[in-house]
Design a protein that fits this description.
The structure is a single chain. The protein has about 280 residues and is an alpha/beta fold. The protein has seven helices and eight strands; from the N terminus they run ααββααβαβββαββα. The chain has helices spanning about 20-40, 40-45, 95, 105-110, 135-155, 200-210, 255-270, and strands at about 50-60, 65-75, 120-130, 160-170, 175, 190-195, 225-230, 240. It has a six-stranded mixed β-sheet, sandwiched between helices. Strand 1 (about 50-60) and strand 2 form a beta hairpin. The relative contact order is 0.17.
Protein backbone atom coordinates (compact mmCIF):
# COMPACT_ATOMS: atom_id res chain seq x y z
CA UNK A 1 0.00 0.00 0.00
CA UNK A 2 3.01 2.31 0.14
CA UNK A 3 2.75 2.66 -3.65
CA UNK A 4 0.52 5.50 -4.84
CA UNK A 5 -1.37 3.93 -7.74
CA UNK A 6 -5.12 4.25 -7.11
CA UNK A 7 -7.00 7.00 -8.91
CA UNK A 8 -8.03 8.31 -12.29
CA UNK A 9 -5.42 8.82 -14.99
CA UNK A 10 -4.08 12.33 -14.70
CA UNK A 11 -5.65 12.85 -11.29
CA UNK A 12 -4.38 12.35 -7.74
CA UNK A 13 -2.93 8.94 -6.94
CA UNK A 14 -3.60 7.37 -3.56
CA UNK A 15 -2.33 4.53 -1.39
CA UNK A 16 -5.91 3.92 -0.24
CA UNK A 17 -9.21 4.93 -1.81
CA UNK A 18 -12.60 3.99 -0.28
CA UNK A 19 -14.12 3.49 -3.74
CA UNK A 20 -11.48 0.96 -4.75
CA UNK A 21 -11.29 -2.66 -3.60
CA UNK A 22 -7.56 -2.87 -4.34
CA UNK A 23 -6.61 -3.02 -0.65
CA UNK A 24 -9.08 -5.90 -0.08
CA UNK A 25 -7.76 -7.89 -3.03
CA UNK A 26 -4.13 -7.48 -1.97
CA UNK A 27 -4.95 -8.32 1.66
CA UNK A 28 -6.79 -11.51 0.66
CA UNK A 29 -3.92 -12.49 -1.63
CA UNK A 30 -1.54 -12.08 1.31
CA UNK A 31 -3.66 -14.29 3.55
CA UNK A 32 -3.71 -17.12 0.99
CA UNK A 33 0.04 -16.66 0.41
CA UNK A 34 0.70 -17.15 4.14
CA UNK A 35 -1.84 -19.96 4.47
CA UNK A 36 -0.16 -21.96 1.71
CA UNK A 37 3.08 -21.76 3.65
CA UNK A 38 1.47 -22.93 6.92
CA UNK A 39 -0.88 -25.68 5.71
CA UNK A 40 0.72 -28.86 4.45
CA UNK A 41 -2.74 -30.30 3.67
CA UNK A 42 -3.64 -27.30 1.50
CA UNK A 43 -0.34 -27.56 -0.38
CA UNK A 44 -1.02 -31.25 -1.05
CA UNK A 45 -4.49 -30.44 -2.37
CA UNK A 46 -3.08 -27.66 -4.56
CA UNK A 47 -0.44 -29.98 -6.03
CA UNK A 48 -3.16 -32.52 -6.82
CA UNK A 49 -5.37 -29.88 -8.47
CA UNK A 50 -8.12 -30.42 -5.91
CA UNK A 51 -8.54 -26.76 -4.99
CA UNK A 52 -9.06 -23.53 -6.90
CA UNK A 53 -9.97 -19.98 -5.96
CA UNK A 54 -12.64 -17.50 -6.93
CA UNK A 55 -12.73 -13.71 -6.64
CA UNK A 56 -15.87 -11.73 -5.70
CA UNK A 57 -17.82 -14.99 -5.62
CA UNK A 58 -21.49 -14.58 -4.69
CA UNK A 59 -22.77 -16.82 -1.89
CA UNK A 60 -26.46 -17.15 -0.95
CA UNK A 61 -28.00 -17.73 2.46
CA UNK A 62 -30.31 -20.70 1.90
CA UNK A 63 -32.66 -19.67 4.73
CA UNK A 64 -33.53 -16.16 3.52
CA UNK A 65 -32.05 -15.78 0.04
CA UNK A 66 -29.69 -12.95 0.99
CA UNK A 67 -26.59 -12.74 -1.20
CA UNK A 68 -23.09 -11.35 -0.79
CA UNK A 69 -19.99 -11.32 -2.98
CA UNK A 70 -17.02 -12.56 -0.96
CA UNK A 71 -13.61 -11.08 -1.74
CA UNK A 72 -11.90 -14.45 -2.14
CA UNK A 73 -12.99 -18.06 -1.80
CA UNK A 74 -10.98 -21.24 -1.81
CA UNK A 75 -12.99 -24.08 -3.27
CA UNK A 76 -13.24 -27.34 -5.11
CA UNK A 77 -13.28 -26.54 -8.84
CA UNK A 78 -16.74 -26.74 -10.33
CA UNK A 79 -17.27 -30.09 -12.07
CA UNK A 80 -16.90 -29.56 -15.80
CA UNK A 81 -16.33 -25.85 -15.32
CA UNK A 82 -13.72 -24.22 -17.52
CA UNK A 83 -11.77 -21.13 -16.67
CA UNK A 84 -12.36 -18.13 -18.89
CA UNK A 85 -9.65 -16.68 -21.11
CA UNK A 86 -8.99 -13.88 -18.62
CA UNK A 87 -8.63 -16.22 -15.61
CA UNK A 88 -5.46 -15.80 -13.62
CA UNK A 89 -3.37 -18.12 -11.52
CA UNK A 90 -2.61 -17.21 -7.92
CA UNK A 91 0.93 -16.21 -8.91
CA UNK A 92 -0.44 -14.28 -11.88
CA UNK A 93 -2.40 -12.01 -9.54
CA UNK A 94 0.88 -10.46 -8.44
CA UNK A 95 1.10 -8.81 -11.85
CA UNK A 96 -2.62 -8.09 -12.15
CA UNK A 97 -2.82 -6.39 -8.74
CA UNK A 98 0.67 -4.86 -8.95
CA UNK A 99 1.63 -6.47 -5.64
CA UNK A 100 5.08 -5.42 -4.42
CA UNK A 101 7.06 -8.48 -3.29
CA UNK A 102 10.60 -8.73 -1.96
CA UNK A 103 13.10 -11.06 -3.61
CA UNK A 104 12.65 -13.45 -0.69
CA UNK A 105 8.86 -13.46 -1.11
CA UNK A 106 9.18 -14.07 -4.83
CA UNK A 107 11.35 -17.08 -4.06
CA UNK A 108 8.76 -18.43 -1.62
CA UNK A 109 5.96 -17.93 -4.17
CA UNK A 110 7.93 -19.75 -6.87
CA UNK A 111 8.28 -22.76 -4.57
CA UNK A 112 4.56 -22.97 -3.72
CA UNK A 113 2.17 -25.15 -5.74
CA UNK A 114 0.04 -23.20 -8.19
CA UNK A 115 -3.66 -22.60 -7.72
CA UNK A 116 -5.89 -21.54 -10.59
CA UNK A 117 -8.87 -19.21 -10.68
CA UNK A 118 -11.72 -21.54 -11.73
CA UNK A 119 -15.52 -21.65 -11.66
CA UNK A 120 -16.42 -22.18 -8.00
CA UNK A 121 -17.70 -25.53 -6.80
CA UNK A 122 -18.00 -26.33 -3.07
CA UNK A 123 -16.61 -23.43 -1.04
CA UNK A 124 -14.08 -24.34 1.63
CA UNK A 125 -12.81 -20.95 2.79
CA UNK A 126 -14.60 -17.65 2.28
CA UNK A 127 -12.56 -14.57 3.13
CA UNK A 128 -13.82 -11.03 3.55
CA UNK A 129 -11.41 -8.11 4.05
CA UNK A 130 -12.56 -4.73 5.32
CA UNK A 131 -10.69 -1.52 6.08
CA UNK A 132 -11.51 1.41 8.34
CA UNK A 133 -9.23 4.38 7.71
CA UNK A 134 -11.04 7.47 9.00
CA UNK A 135 -14.34 8.76 10.46
CA UNK A 136 -14.14 5.93 12.97
CA UNK A 137 -17.32 6.69 14.92
CA UNK A 138 -19.42 6.60 11.75
CA UNK A 139 -17.58 3.68 10.16
CA UNK A 140 -17.59 1.25 13.10
CA UNK A 141 -21.31 0.29 12.99
CA UNK A 142 -21.16 -0.24 9.23
CA UNK A 143 -18.00 -2.35 9.56
CA UNK A 144 -19.64 -4.54 12.19
CA UNK A 145 -22.85 -5.02 10.20
CA UNK A 146 -21.06 -5.87 6.96
CA UNK A 147 -18.77 -8.41 8.59
CA UNK A 148 -21.50 -9.98 10.71
CA UNK A 149 -23.72 -10.45 7.66
CA UNK A 150 -20.75 -11.91 5.79
CA UNK A 151 -20.29 -14.89 8.12
CA UNK A 152 -24.05 -15.43 8.33
CA UNK A 153 -24.38 -15.66 4.54
CA UNK A 154 -21.31 -17.90 4.21
CA UNK A 155 -22.64 -20.44 6.69
CA UNK A 156 -26.19 -20.08 5.37
CA UNK A 157 -24.79 -21.13 2.00
CA UNK A 158 -22.34 -23.83 3.15
CA UNK A 159 -22.16 -24.60 6.87
CA UNK A 160 -18.90 -26.51 6.54
CA UNK A 161 -17.20 -23.56 4.85
CA UNK A 162 -14.63 -21.68 6.91
CA UNK A 163 -15.73 -18.06 7.27
CA UNK A 164 -12.75 -15.76 7.73
CA UNK A 165 -12.54 -12.02 8.22
CA UNK A 166 -9.59 -9.64 8.09
CA UNK A 167 -9.96 -6.08 9.34
CA UNK A 168 -7.39 -3.41 8.46
CA UNK A 169 -7.48 -0.43 10.82
CA UNK A 170 -5.63 2.84 10.36
CA UNK A 171 -3.47 3.77 13.33
CA UNK A 172 -2.24 7.06 11.88
CA UNK A 173 -3.13 10.32 13.62
CA UNK A 174 -3.37 12.06 10.21
CA UNK A 175 -5.21 10.98 7.07
CA UNK A 176 -5.71 12.59 3.66
CA UNK A 177 -9.14 11.54 2.45
CA UNK A 178 -9.45 10.98 -1.34
CA UNK A 179 -13.14 11.90 -1.27
CA UNK A 180 -12.45 15.21 0.51
CA UNK A 181 -9.51 15.99 -1.79
CA UNK A 182 -10.77 14.87 -5.19
CA UNK A 183 -9.60 18.13 -6.80
CA UNK A 184 -6.19 18.24 -5.20
CA UNK A 185 -4.48 18.29 -8.61
CA UNK A 186 -6.12 21.65 -9.36
CA UNK A 187 -4.11 23.44 -6.70
CA UNK A 188 -6.84 23.36 -4.07
CA UNK A 189 -5.27 23.08 -0.57
CA UNK A 190 -5.21 19.61 0.92
CA UNK A 191 -7.72 18.95 3.70
CA UNK A 192 -6.26 16.71 6.38
CA UNK A 193 -8.27 14.72 8.92
CA UNK A 194 -6.78 14.32 12.39
CA UNK A 195 -7.48 11.26 14.53
CA UNK A 196 -7.33 10.97 18.31
CA UNK A 197 -4.91 8.06 18.46
CA UNK A 198 -4.48 5.57 19.99
CA UNK A 199 -7.96 6.14 21.45
CA UNK A 200 -9.89 5.58 18.20
CA UNK A 201 -7.72 2.59 17.37
CA UNK A 202 -8.41 0.95 20.74
CA UNK A 203 -12.17 1.52 20.50
CA UNK A 204 -12.24 0.07 16.99
CA UNK A 205 -10.24 -3.04 17.92
CA UNK A 206 -12.67 -3.67 20.80
CA UNK A 207 -15.58 -3.19 18.38
CA UNK A 208 -14.18 -5.90 16.10
CA UNK A 209 -13.62 -8.12 19.13
CA UNK A 210 -17.39 -8.11 19.65
CA UNK A 211 -18.05 -9.90 16.35
CA UNK A 212 -19.39 -13.46 16.82
CA UNK A 213 -16.80 -16.24 16.63
CA UNK A 214 -17.37 -19.98 16.70
CA UNK A 215 -15.36 -23.02 17.75
CA UNK A 216 -17.53 -25.59 15.94
CA UNK A 217 -20.08 -25.72 13.14
CA UNK A 218 -23.11 -25.96 15.45
CA UNK A 219 -23.12 -22.24 16.31
CA UNK A 220 -22.93 -19.02 14.23
CA UNK A 221 -19.83 -16.88 13.99
CA UNK A 222 -16.49 -16.45 12.27
CA UNK A 223 -14.19 -19.46 12.18
CA UNK A 224 -11.15 -17.17 11.95
CA UNK A 225 -10.89 -13.42 12.46
CA UNK A 226 -7.85 -11.16 12.39
CA UNK A 227 -6.93 -7.49 12.75
CA UNK A 228 -3.97 -5.71 11.17
CA UNK A 229 -3.07 -2.16 12.20
CA UNK A 230 -1.38 0.07 9.62
CA UNK A 231 -0.16 3.65 9.70
CA UNK A 232 -1.72 5.06 6.53
CA UNK A 233 -1.55 8.83 6.15
CA UNK A 234 -2.29 8.65 2.40
CA UNK A 235 0.43 11.22 1.87
CA UNK A 236 2.23 10.54 -1.40
CA UNK A 237 5.75 9.30 -0.80
CA UNK A 238 5.14 8.38 2.84
CA UNK A 239 5.49 4.65 3.42
CA UNK A 240 2.82 2.56 5.09
CA UNK A 241 4.01 0.82 8.25
CA UNK A 242 2.63 -1.92 10.50
CA UNK A 243 1.68 -1.01 14.06
CA UNK A 244 2.59 -3.76 16.55
CA UNK A 245 2.35 -2.07 19.93
CA UNK A 246 -0.91 -2.05 21.94
CA UNK A 247 -3.77 -1.53 21.38
CA UNK A 248 -2.86 -3.60 18.31
CA UNK A 249 -3.59 -7.30 19.03
CA UNK A 250 -0.54 -8.98 20.55
CA UNK A 251 0.85 -12.48 19.83
CA UNK A 252 -1.49 -15.05 21.34
CA UNK A 253 -4.53 -12.78 21.01
CA UNK A 254 -7.34 -14.41 19.00
CA UNK A 255 -7.34 -11.35 16.71
CA UNK A 256 -3.60 -11.39 16.02
CA UNK A 257 -2.74 -12.05 12.37
CA UNK A 258 -0.73 -15.14 13.26
CA UNK A 259 -3.76 -16.54 15.11
CA UNK A 260 -5.86 -15.96 11.99
CA UNK A 261 -3.47 -17.97 9.82
CA UNK A 262 -3.11 -20.75 12.41
CA UNK A 263 -6.87 -21.11 12.80
CA UNK A 264 -7.35 -21.19 9.03
CA UNK A 265 -4.67 -23.87 8.65
CA UNK A 266 -6.03 -25.96 11.52
CA UNK A 267 -9.66 -25.68 10.46
CA UNK A 268 -8.86 -26.53 6.84
CA UNK A 269 -6.89 -29.64 7.83
CA UNK A 270 -9.63 -30.79 10.22
CA UNK A 271 -12.59 -30.29 7.85
CA UNK A 272 -11.08 -31.26 4.50
CA UNK A 273 -8.36 -33.86 5.15
CA UNK A 274 -9.31 -36.12 2.25
CA UNK A 275 -9.02 -33.49 -0.49
Amino acid sequence: MSVTRIGKTGGPQWQYHPRSDHHSKVACWGVLFDLLQHSEVLRMHAEAGLVAFGINHTMTNFTNGKKKALDLVLCRPQAGGRAGKSAESFAGLVRQYAIALSDSERGILAALPEIQCRPVGAVRIALEAKAIMTEFAKARPRLYDELSSSQTIVHGDTNEAIAAGLVIINGSSLFISPTRNANAEQGIPIKATHHDQPKQLGITVDHVRGLPRRADTSVPGFDALGVVILNVSNVQGEAVSVVTEPPAPQPGDVLHYESLINRLAGSYSARFPAG
